[in-house]
């Protein structure tokens, strides 16, 4: 199954994405990822909405791919941009054609959290007045 989200006019090019998308920054970029338990640069361990997972980070030509090699659903996602475009694409996949509706909803929220995190990084929300 595939899940997508776009952040229009993000202003992020491939170099900015690669600099931004480090393991240590994942909790601030996606609220479904609560903590980074281990960070070895291209490999780490995170705690997320589905529990604790090893995570691989791989730079792509136009962004970064993350994968959970120990996930029974082979969950992976990429955050990329097209050359010459200021739209950022979040693309998430699992290795099933069908799944439990609650799990599908949790993936949709995960992708939405990524979209919100990227959007807030490039255009932080206005502070609320007291």
What does this 3D model show about the protein?
By secondary structure, this protein is an alpha+beta fold. The protein has a single domain, classed as 2-Layer Sandwich (Alpha-D-Glucose-1,6-Bisphosphate, Chain A, domain 4), CATH 3.30.530. Helix content is 25%, strand content 35%. It has a seven-stranded antiparallel β-sheet with strand order 1-7-6-5-4-3-2. Strand 6 and strand 7 (88-93) form a beta hairpin. The longest helix has 22 residues, at 101-122. The radius of gyration is 14 Å and the shape is globular. It starts with a strand and ends in an 8-residue tail after the last helix.
Short description:
By secondary structure, this protein is α+β, with helices and mostly antiparallel strands. It has helices at residues 14-20, 26-29, 101-122, and strands at 2-7, 33-39, 43-48, 51-60, 63-67, 76-81, 88-93.
Features:
seven-stranded antiparallel β-sheet, alpha+beta, 7 strands, 130 residues
Q: Output the strand order for the largest sheet.
A: 1-7-6-5-4-3-2
Name of the top-level CATH class: Alpha Beta
CATH superfamily: START domain
Separation of the first and last Cα atoms = 44 Å
Classify the beta-strand content into a percent band. 35-45%
Q: Which term fits the overall shape? A: globular
Number of domains: 1
Give the helix/strand class.
alpha+beta
Calculate the mean pLDDT score and round it: 92
What proportion of the residues is helical, as a percent range?
25-40%
By CATH, the topology is Alpha-D-Glucose-1,6-Bisphosphate, Chain A, domain 4
Q: Characterize the biggest β-sheet.
A: 7 strands, antiparallel
Order of helices and strands: EHHEEEEEEH
Number of strands: 7
Tally of DSSP helical segments: 3
